[in-house]
Amino acid sequence: VQLVESGGGLVQAGGSLRLSCAFSGRFFGRYSMSWFRQTPGNQRELVTSIGSEWITYYDDSVKGRFTVSRDNDKNMMYLEMDSLKPEDTGVYYCFAQWTMGYWGRGTQVTVSS
Fold it and tell me: What span, in angstroms and rounded, lies between the C-alpha atoms of 40 and 22?
């Protein structure tokens, strides 16, 4: 399995970004998919996830602003980020979990105040 994130960038506070995670491998639909965020000196923290049965989870800090989705036909996961805040800044990683876990290399999101 290989995961490739894209869509990061620099945006002003209040703006929006859409991240994508491309999954290469088999049985994408069986994987639980997640987005993690990491800032310098800190561990990766779970932002949101979407399970194989489409059950979603959001960290309280992003509820109402971020929306996770997946397209099982295209082997893709997305993260729509609206009303961005400076504290959303970090490297966003895609994570896939089924029998094993896999990480992407991350995409940088920077929100300026």
Answer: 25
Alpha carbons 38 and 24: distance in angstroms, whole number: 23
Q: C-alpha distances in angstroms, 96 versus 11, 46, 50, 60, 101? A: 27, 12, 10, 21, 6
Q: Whole-angstrom Cα distance, residue 81 to residue 15?
A: 8
Strand partners, 111: 11
Using CA atoms, how far residue 103 sits from 46, 48, 112, in Å, is 13, 15, 27
* Per-residue model confidence as pLDDT tens digits over 14-53: 999 999 999 999 999 999 999 999 999 999 999 999 998 8
